[in-house]
Design a protein that fits this description.
- It catalyses: precorrin-5 + S-adenosyl-L-methionine + H2O = precorrin-6A + acetate + S-adenosyl-L-homocysteine + 2 H(+).
- One of its GO terms (molecular function) is precorrin-6A synthase (deacetylating) activity.
- Pfam families: TP_methylase.
- The chain has 261 residues and is an alpha/beta fold.
- The protein folds into 2 domains: 134 residues, 3-Layer(aba) Sandwich (Cobalt-precorrin-4 Transmethylase, domain 1); 105 residues, Methyltransferase, Cobalt-precorrin-4 Transmethylase, Domain 2 (2-Layer Sandwich), CATH 3.30.950.
- The protein contains 7 helices and 10 strands.
- Strands 3-2-4-1-5 form a 5-stranded parallel sheet, sandwiched between helices.
Length: 261
C-alpha cells in the first residue's frame, strides 16, 4: 500500500502538504491509574485524539478510552471517534489481516484529513503497549509516518502482578505467543514458560495438561478483574466456563495467561 502521508512537505510538486505527527500512546489495560505521566503529557500535546469504535458488542472499550481521556484531560473537545473496519475472516489469515490493516489506515487518514486539514499532532490510545502484539505500528507505516511511541503497562505485567508471581523461573526463558500459534505448533521448543495472548478461548486444551500450571486473568486492572490459577488439569474447564459467562455478561473479553511446566 502506498504511503498515505508522504514524509516531506510538497515533495516533487512544490505544494505544501499538511504536516502530520503521530503519537501511539500505551494506556495499560483499562485502569486510568495505569496511564503513565509520559502518556498524559503526550495526550495533552495532541491536537486530535482518535478513539476507535468496535461495534455495540465492544462499546465498553470505547467507553474506557473516553473515561481515560476524561480523567487525565478533562476537555474532550479534541477527542474524535471513528468506526473500526471489520476483518474478513473468510480467507487466508495473513491476507485478511493485511487487507484489514489497509482499511484501518484509510480510516485513520479520513478522520485526520477531516479534523486536521492544516496539519497537527494526532494521538491514538493503544491498549497495553504499542510494541507487544499490537498492529498500530504496522498501520502507521502504511501512512508513511514515523510515530512517537509512548510505552504503556502491558497486560502481561499486570497479570503477573495480579497473581504476585515472577514471569520466569530463575534463569529460565519465557516465550510470548498467541493462542493460534499454541494450537497449531504446541508448546514452543526450549521454553519453560509460555505467555499466551490473543487466544479466542481454550488453546491450552491443545497441550498435554499433566505437569502444567496456569495463571489466567481477564479484564486485568479493571473493577471486574477475574483471576484463576492452578494445575491445568484441575482448572482448565473452570477457566473456559468462567470465560464464557464473562463474555456473555459483558459482550467482549480480554484475557491472557501464563503456562509453566
Amino acid at each position: 500500500m502506498t504511503a498515505l502521508f508522504p514524509p516531506e512537505r510538497g515533495a516533487g510538486r512544490g505544494q505544501d502538504r499538511p504536516k502530520i505527527a503521530l503519537d501511539l500512546i500505551g494506556i495499560g489495560t483499562g485502569n486510568p491509574d495505569h496511564v503513565t505521566l509520559a502518556a498524559i503529557r503526550a495526550m495533552a500535546e495532541a491536537d486530535l485524539i482518535l478513539l476507535p469504535r468496535k461495534g455495540t458488542d465492544k462499546s465498553d472499550l470505547a467507553d474506557l478510552r473516553r473515561q481515560i481521556c476524561a480523567v487525565h484531560l478533562g476537555d474532550l473537545s479534541r477527542v474524535e471517534e471513528f468506526d473500526l473496519p471489520v476483518r474478513d475472516a473468510s480467507g487466508a489469515y495473513l491476507d485478511g489481516v493485511n487487507d484489514w490493516h489497509d482499511a484501518i489506515a484509510l480510516s485513520w487518514k479520513a478522520r485526520i484529513d477531516a479534523c486536521l486539514p492544516q496539519g497537527g499532532r494526532v494521538a491514538l490510545l493503544v491498549w497495553g503497549d504499542p510494541s507487544l502484539y499490537d498492529s498500530s505500528l504496522r498501520i502507521a507505516a502504511r501512512l508513511g509516518l514515523t510515530p512517537r511511541v509512548v510505552p504503556g503497562v502491558t497486560s502481561l505485567s499486570v497479570l503477573t502482578a495480579a497473581h504476585a508471581i515472577p514471569l520466569n523461573d530463575l534463569g529460565a526463558p519465557v516465550v510470548i505467543t498467541t493462542g493460534r500459534r499454541l494450537r497449531d505448533a504446541g508448546w514452543p521448543d526450549g521454553a519453560d514458560a509460555v505467555a499466551v495472548m490473543l487466544d479466542q478461548g481454550g488453546a491450552f486444551n491443545a497441550l498435554a495438561p499433566e505437569g502444567v500450571t496456569i495463571w489466567w486473568g481477564a479484564y486485568l486492572g479493571m473493577p471486574h478483574e477475574t483471576l484463576i490459577a492452578g494445575p491445568l488439569p484441575d482448572v482448565a474447564q473452570r477457566i473456559l466456563d468462567t470465560r464464557a459467562a464473562l463474555r456473555a455478561q459483558h459482550g467482549w473479553i480480554m484475557d491472557i495467561y501464563l503456562l509453566r511446566r
